[in-house]
Design brief:
The chain is an all-beta fold. 0% of the residues lie in helices and 51% in strands. Strands 2, 4, 5, 6, 9, 10 and 11 form a seven-stranded mixed β-sheet that branches. A four-stranded antiparallel β-sheet has the order 1-3-8-7, with no helix packed on it. It is globular, with a radius of gyration of 13 Å.
């Protein structure tokens, strides 16, 4: 499975942005997918995850109520809609394919995209 993230950019605080992750390979719908982010000088952290069917979603407390994860299995794509963005949301955002035990931990993900930069100005 190869993952390609896109849609990052520069946005003002309070604004919105949607990042996408296109997957190649078969059986996309069999994988839960996650988004992680990494800010300069910080460790990579969990943002959100979604089950293979899309019925289950999981969020970090820091983004709950502001971010929405979704997927379109017909298009092999997972999305992260980010609203009410804050400067502390600035990071490189990575999508990942889940193959482990807990969606909250990066070591549960085998497949990783290259990341897309999101910068929120104050």
């Amino acid at each position: 499975v190869q993952l390609q993230a896109s849609g990052g950019g520069l946005v003002q605080a309070g604004g919105s942005l949607r990042v996408s992750c296109a997957a190649s390979g078969r059986s996309f719908s069999s994988y839960a997918m996650g988004w992680f982010r990494q800010a300069p000088g910080k460790e990579r952290e969990f943002v959100a995850a979604i089950s293979g069917s899309g019925a289950g979603t999981y969020y970090a407390d820091s983004v709950k109520g502001r971010f929405t994860i979704s997927r379109d299995n017909a298009k092999n794509t997972v999305y992260l809609q980010m609203n009410s963005l804050k400067p502390e949301d600035t990071a490189v955002y990575y999508c990942a394919g889940f193959t482990g035990t807990s969606v909250y931990y990066s070591n549960s993900y085998r497949y990783w995209g290259q990341g897309t930069q999101v910068t929120v100005s104050s």
